[in-house]
Amino acid sequence: MENKKIGEIFDEIADIIEIEDSKRIFEIRAYRKAALTVSELQEDVADILRKKGIDGLMELPGVGKGLAEKIKEYVETGRMRKYEELKRKYPIDFTGLTKVRGLGSKKAFRLYNELGVRNMKDLKAVLKKKKIRGLEGFGEKSEEALGKGVESVEAASSRMLLGTALPEAESIIRKLLESRLVERAELAGSSRRMKETVGDLDILVISEKPEKAMDFATKIEEVESVMLKGQTKSTVWLKIGLSCDIRVVPRESFGAAMQYFIGNKDHNVKVRQIAIREGYKLNEYGLFDKKGKIVESENEGEIYKILGMGYPVPEMRENRGEIELAMQHKLPVPVSLKDIKGDLHVHSANSDGANTIEEMAEAAIALGYGYIGITDHSKSEYVANGMDETRFKKYVKEIDRVNDKLDGRIRIFKSAETDILRDGSLDFGKAALKDMDYVLASIHTSLNMDKDSMTKRMVKCIESGDVDIIGHPTDRIIHQRDPIPLDLDRVFQAAKDNDVVMEIDGYPERLDLNDENIMKAREYGLKFAIDTDSHRTQHLRLMRFGVGTARRGWLTKDDVINTSGVGKIAKMFRD
DNA sequence: GCCGTTTTCGGCCCGACTGTTTTCAGTCG
């Protein structure tokens, strides 16, 4: 997969054009946009090229003929002539250096030209020798800032999991509100859109005393250091290794600011184009008419309404077709957390969970659920204390006992997260499967098969007639393990033909299926189960991450089976 | 270099913050 590398190359070309002739601003932007598109793309550009040729590449937003040719050249030869020519003139690791906050292409070039800095290692060396402060236009402060920037880069090696970042943001917001210096504080940015990983946090506040609010915000205990602090905007570095922007916004333009800062960028560009077409101008201060008179700014929803659009929830704002549907007032009503009636992927101490079945059930009752499915591991998962048939029989009896004891306060379904073996068969025999209310099947082992074999393994399992739900279908773990190679078109078609449900595993490291794959599966008309894969009682609360991911994939309540009550779902499994 | 309900040319976001500039360039989002 060369997507990331190609993205970096395009970014470096943009850096170099910026040095040579910064007036070519739109060409620079074109390279940057394409860099972002390609590096964030889930599908391998080489696959696109193989399936649809150069036209397939040109379908990517921001990629035209010129850049498509360059991608093709790189995929086929491993080289890009234009890039290599430029790099001979400027042998600078822009990709590494410009990750340092405050260091862009121009300053990086000056450091190279005047101090010979080519990469992070050189930068650290000249920082240590305090050489930078001697350069014209640089001073002691810029040198210190660069030093801090280098530390931050080393601390934050990648984007942070939403599951880590979101609770942190909520804690900061709570403290801001408790201070009474702000009357409103809301999360914006990619975390508001529930993107699986986030690069930073964006918090918008309304305050009568902006300076005091900024003072307070920069001193919250989560803050490690203050990167910049102004009258209306501060950026702080958090102890967890993430930067956080806090902006004070006037009350009267809060809605416009939310719309602007929730993003994403592509979504906003399109909305602003629509505003222009309708005779308005939209920015973070409001929606203005031709005379520059403010039409709406307090309420985000009203802005969309005036533009003739339905209201897309933040999770949908990725420019993946939601704007077009909003214009036609055909946006789906996305599933929400309150629609969820139960959790169908829950572990207990019978395999690798921390709590008993009864404790998990009590925790589910506290959440207002009507049912949970206990899905402990099967024997192949010996590292996770998986059950053999003998233990499984005892486990089934135990679930019966707890069901009796809880006396209808909740229904506990009997299941097991049954391993899909290398040949596509299941890790439990027919007798055990018959004792389950439903069968959840997952792949955990033999992950290094080729795509065709892996796909056959999954499809065979789906076609067996023994399976109800496929757990975490791609088996990826964010930042740790790539998705297993699957031809998802074949998998989803088989699932549709055999009425097999796809799981959205809401555990923040998994989020599997992810948003893009959900959208693809939805096209096949599949049903989904949003689960938590809980291993302790507290994990049951992770459901919101699964729901967020489902909303990013445009799912409605009807697409999700565990929005049904206990009676309906029990019947669904029996049939 | 990309793109198209202003369509094959002429647009393409700009405001906030910082440092060291005395009026602005660079960077960021």
Number of helical segments with 4 or more residues: 24
Strand content: 5-15%
Subunit arrangement of the protein: single chain
Determine and state the CATH class of the largest domain.
Answer: Alpha Beta
Structural class: alpha/beta
Q: What is the end-to-end distance?
A: 42 Å
> What is the CATH topology assignment of the largest domain?
TIM Barrel
Number of β-strand runs: 17
Q: What would you report as the Rg, rounded to the nearest angstrom?
A: 26 Å
Helix content: 40-55%
Mean pLDDT: 92
List segments where confidence is low: pLDDT < 50 over at least 5 consecutive residues: none
Task: Profile the largest sheet.
Answer: 7 strands, parallel
Annotation keywords:
575 residues; alpha/beta; DNA polymerase, domain 1; Beta Polymerase, domain 2; 5 domains; 7-stranded parallel β-sheet; DNA-binding
Please characterize this protein's 3D structure.
With 575 residues, the chain is of the alpha/beta class. It has five domains: 1-90, DNA polymerase beta, N-terminal domain-like (DNA polymerase, domain 1, Orthogonal Bundle); 98-155, DNA polymerase, domain 1 (Orthogonal Bundle), CATH 1.10.150.20; 160-248, Beta Polymerase, domain 2, CATH 3.30.460.10; 253-327, DNA polymerase, thumb domain (Beta Polymerase, domain 3, 2-Layer Sandwich), CATH 3.30.210; 337-574, Metal-dependent hydrolases (TIM Barrel, Alpha-Beta Barrel), CATH 3.20.20. Helix content is 45%, strand content 14%. It has 24 helices and 17 strands. The strands form four sheets. A seven-stranded parallel sheet has the order 11-12-13-14-15-16-17. Strand 13, helix 19 (430-434) and strand 14 form a beta-alpha-beta unit. Helix 1 (3-20) runs antiparallel to helix 2 (25-40) and helix 22 (515-523) packs across helix 23. The longest helix has 18 residues, at 3-20. The radius of gyration is 26 Å and the shape is globular. It binds one DNA strand of 29 nucleotides through helix 2, helix 4, helix 7, helix 9 and helix 14.
